């Protein structure tokens, strides 16, 4: 197996959607974002923020697959 071939990192987390979300879903996503900021000094990320984080960590590609209601499966490739 060559370097990076067949390997990936899998993350299950919320990806905040600004578009294609109904009002109630967007409210719930923003509520979780506030909870992360207050409780853990973290934040929920949108697609662009995930891309910036992934590429700045040195990964070459990624795929976001919405699953489990508000959660998404994020596949990150070398």
From TrEMBL:
Biological-process GO terms, alphabetical: methylation
Cited SUPFAM superfamilies: S-adenosyl-L-methionine-dependent methyltransferases (SSF53335)
Domain annotation O-methyltransferase C-terminal: ranges: 6-59
This protein's UniProt keywords: Methyltransferase, S-adenosyl-L-methionine, Transferase
Span of the signal peptide: none
GO MF annotation, one: O-methyltransferase activity
A Pfam family annotated for this UniProt entry: Methyltransf_2
Transmembrane annotation, as ranges: none
Highest taxon of source: Eukaryota
InterPro entries xref list: COMT-like, COMT_C, SAM-dependent_MTases_sf
Keyword hit for S-adenosyl-L-methionine: yes
Alphabetized PANTHER family for the sequence: O-METHYLTRANSFERASE (PTHR11746)
Name of the protein this chain belongs to: O-methyltransferase C-terminal domain-containing protein
């Amino acid at each position: 197996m060559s370097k990076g071939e067949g390997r990936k990192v899998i993350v299950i987390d919320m990806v905040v959607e600004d578009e294609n979300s109904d009002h109630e879903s967007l409210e719930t996503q923003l509520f979780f974002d506030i909870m992360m900021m207050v409780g853990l000094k973290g934040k929920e990320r949108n697609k662009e923020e995930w891309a910036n984080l992934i590429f700045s960590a040195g990964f070459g590609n990624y795929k976001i697959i919405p699953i489990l209601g508000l959660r998404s499966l994020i596949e990150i490739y070398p």
